[in-house]
Design goal:
- The structure is a single chain.
- This protein has about 280 residues and is an alpha+beta fold.
- It has eleven helices and four strands.
- It has helices at about 55-65, 70-85, 95-110, 120-125, 125-145, 150-165, 170-195, 200-220, 230-240, 240-255, 260-270; strands spanning about 1-10, 10-15, 20-25, 45-50.
- It has a four-stranded antiparallel sheet with strand order 1-2-3-4.
- Strand 1 and strand 2 (about 10-15) form a beta hairpin.
């Protein structure tokens, strides 16, 4: 591998034998080195191969300003997340999370807190991502000796949700908005039935999962798989209260749902409200 660009003593851009550009980090990897020289492979600690060209270019720009320790820390968090999640992560996570962590510490050093108003909802609807966020706080404390509040675990979780390749979320604002909508829908169900939902039940878990994919379909303007209209008519009659509750949700969302979405929502409402 040949050095193509030097950011600092610990970070470079190199080209490998296949002419691929890599961002490489390692203690002293560029010390007393020049562009065009060979990379000492014994000093390589972390290698970034970003297949998305735009993400790669933005990541290299980020390295101009962000200290290596933050980049290295985020690499460890992302690698841990990849091992724990069942979904692939978009290359942009290296850009967005690194930039976020760097700016979080700038605020931290100024005595400012990066609060997350959706922390309760994130814990409930995205438990796996939130647990990774908590683990990330441990990494941060071990590496940098600074203890960040639990809100930051929620912020990191949102970045992970946004970076999941199969997600239809376009940005962090959409995630926050949709997380709030899920809570609002649960509130509609709770108030309609006058009960407290069992958050540990399988029906509850399936309802939340359905709502997450439901919003993905709405964003993509897709519909669920077609079903015979006869089934919706039967469900409307058999589960009248659940159907009426679904209509309240449709009104809240200010969108006309397909018969398929009405059917599935009604069935999930019926299941989640049964003792």
């Amino acid at each position: 591998m040949i050095i193509k660009k030097i950011f600092n003593n610990n970070a470079i851009v190199a080209k490998d034998a296949d002419n691929r550009e890599l961002v490489i980090m390692g203690c002293g990897i560029a010390f007393k080195k020049s562009i065009g020289e060979k990379v000492d492979k014994n000093l390589i600690e972390k290698t970034f191969i970003l297949k998305q060209k735009d993400a790669s270019e933005k990541f290299k720009l980020l390295l101009e300003d962000v200290p290596s320790e933050y980049v290295s820390l985020c690499y460890d968090i992302i690698e841990y997340a990849k091992n724990m999640l069942d979904a692939r992560l978009n290359d942009y996570i290296y850009v967005t999370l690194t930039d976020h962590i760097y700016n979080t510490f700038k605020m931290y050093n100024e005595g400012l807190k990066n609060l997350n108003p959706l922390i309760w909802e994130i814990k409930k609807f995205y438990p796996k991502e939130f647990q990774i966020g908590l683990k990330a706080l441990e990494f941060i404390e071990e590496e940098l000796g600074k203890k960040l509040p639990e809100d930051e675990a929620g912020n990191i979780a949102l970045h992970l949700i946004n970076a999941q390749v199969n997600s239809s979320y376009n940005n962090m604002e959409n995630i926050a908005e949709q997380t709030k909508k899920i809570q609002d829908i649960l509130n509609i169900v709770t108030y309609t039935y006058g009960i407290t939902l069992n958050e540990k039940s399988i029906s509850y878990e399936r309802f939340i999962t359905h709502l997450r994919f439901f919003f993905q379909r709405l964003n993509k303007k897709e519909t669920a798989e077609a079903e015979d209209d006869y089934l919706l008519r039967k469900v409307k009659t058999k589960y009248k209260k659940a159907y009426d509750c679904m209509l309240k949700i449709e009104k809240y969302l200010e969108t006309e749902l397909s018969d398929e979405e009405k059917l599935y929502l009604t069935i999930h409402i019926q299941r989640v409200t049964q003792r």
